[in-house]
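hey so i finally got around to running the thing on that chain from the lab meeting. sorry it took forever, my laptop kept dying and i had to restart like 3 times. anyway pasting the input first so we r on the same page abt which one it is
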Amino acid sequence: MVHLTRIYTRTGDRGTTRLVDNSLVPKTDLRVEAYGTVDELNSAIGVTLSHGELSLSMVDALRLIQNELFDLGSDLATPLNPDAETEPLRIIASSVERLERWCDEYMSGLAELRSFVLPGGTTGAAHLHICRTTCRRAERIAWRAVDEFGVDTPGGISGLAVTYLNRLSDLLFIFARVANRRDGDILWVPGASRQAPAPRPE
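ok and heres what got predicted. didnt touch it at all, straight out
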């Protein structure tokens, strides 16, 4: 159980923070950058949900994902330690498999894509694209952390945590397409900006 009795602690005023294993690191540590960006993603999902445009099934999925993103943040904030006295909270294979299953289910009703999708459309879809790109950024930072600390090795990053971010960004892309299904995807037209725009009627 988590107990938050005071929000400010003054312990980070020197530019450092503690990971879950109590190790002291700079706030610029790539692990801190990774789980901080996951927190940003979670906030973006919250804004998306606040608009109330999505189907109930997507809302339920995103609510579960929001909770799981806290698990992911804890995972990224806990260096791997095979000798840990207690088992830390980590992303597990079934969480990744659930994302893959949702990807397959929601993709089944979508038209085949013949170009890249431009972010936009409904408010819900536009916000889901912001979530998607934030998720991709979190994944890139996590891979930088892997480059520095290693993957699935003592002191390193869990490979499943990074895989989760990859699958989640795919799902968010699919959700954005579903949110635009009524009016269709807005597709990229290569070189369209080189053509003279048609005059708008007054």
